[in-house]
Amino acid sequence: MIKIGYFADGPWSHKAIEYISNSNLFKIVFIVPRYDRKDPVLAQWANKLDVPFLVCKNVNDASFLEEISKYEADIFISMSFNQILKKSILLLPPMGFLNCHAGALPFYRGRNPLNWVLINGEKSFGITAHFIDEGIDTGPILHQEHFSIRDDDNYGTLLELAVIKCAEVLLKGLNKIADGNYKLVEQGEIHPVGTYFSQRKQGDELVSFFWDATRFHNFVRALSAPSPEARFRIGAKEFSIVRTELIPGAPNYISTEGEVVGRNHNGIIVKVADKTLLINLIRDLNSIEHASFTPQFPIGTRLEGRK
To answer: Which of 12, 40, 117, 179 has a 20 to 30 A CA-CA distance from 156?
Structure first.
């Protein structure tokens, strides 16, 4: 039986720990949550599995490494853990430190990969179980799978799928290790450079009406709930965009970007860089309720986004 030290947080880790605990090949010997959140669901799992729930501000500290060494874990697993892992802890478990990343490494390294794949208009996304090294998502790949992105997918639907598939990919990788029949793939064998994406921060949600319609539409999909939603302003008032729709056959032409040029029962028609698109549903961030509604701003209204 392979003994696991589990470093984790959130829904990604909940489904994975369920799968791992149902297998007779693995045994979790301790759980380390994020220091700032101390995930209560993982605390319940620690109680259920009768293992220590170890809250630590810096898992690289020598005293913490000494403490977890007592449990003689064969492998460590990271599932949405947020601390930078240094060489001392990476080398501690004899089988290595395994991570599950919701990106098709060596592409989509870094943060918020599900948002970024939609922003980039990808038709599929990957999930990768890989060993952690001292780089950022650069370690050798144990198991990777790809999943289709539908035209009607948004961040919420991808997240729902990825939480389940990440747990499945991780378990398949662990089963390979248990079988002892696997070959690690260096990321450079797939692509010598790959791609890296930074964490999305407050202010990044503003749209630009100087983007083309497809880019604008993909951005709205990418920032749908539970992300903060794409946003624009009218004067001092701020609104978020819940849903947009590309207009079949809309012609390309030059005019004023961000202007409402038409209305119908489905929303407002807005000019962007190349053509027009339909904004179906927005949320009023100026009200206490943040109620959503079909916008009916007058023709000629100027919507403001990032410059």
So the answer is: 40
The two three-digit tokens of residue 59, written as one number: 């898992």
Query: 193-208 burial, b for 16+ CB within 10 Å, e for fewer?
Result: ebbbbeebeeebbebb
DSSP state of 221: H
- CA nearest neighbour of 68 among 31, 100, 42, 16: 31
Looking at residue 12, what DSSP letter applies?
H
pLDDT tens digits for range 263-307: 999 999 999 999 999 999 999 999 888 989 999 999 999 999 997
Q: What is the dihedral of CA 181, 183, 184, 186, to 10 degrees?
A: 180
Provide the residue type at 13 as one letter: S
Taking each helix axis from N to C end, the angle separating 10-21 and 155-179, rounded to the nearest 10 degrees, works out to 40
Give first-to-last CA distance, the chain, whole Å.
57
**Phi, psi of 289, deg, nearest 5:** -80, -15
Tokens of 245: 């729709």
- The token pair at 132 is 């952690």
Q: Are 230 and 241 in contact (CB under 8 A)?
A: yes
Task: Classify residue 134 as exposed, middle or buried by CB count within 10 Å of its CB (0-12, 13-18, 19+).
Answer: exposed
For the record, the structure tokens of 267 come out as 């929303």
Rg of the chain's alpha carbons, rounded to an integer? 23
**Rounded to two decimals, what is the model's pTM?**
0.94
Pairing of strands 124-131, 276-284: unpaired
> Largest Cα–Cα distance of the chain, in whole Å?
69
Closest by Cα among 164, 150, 140, 83 to 117: 150
Cα–Cα distance, 50 to 237 (Å, whole number): 52
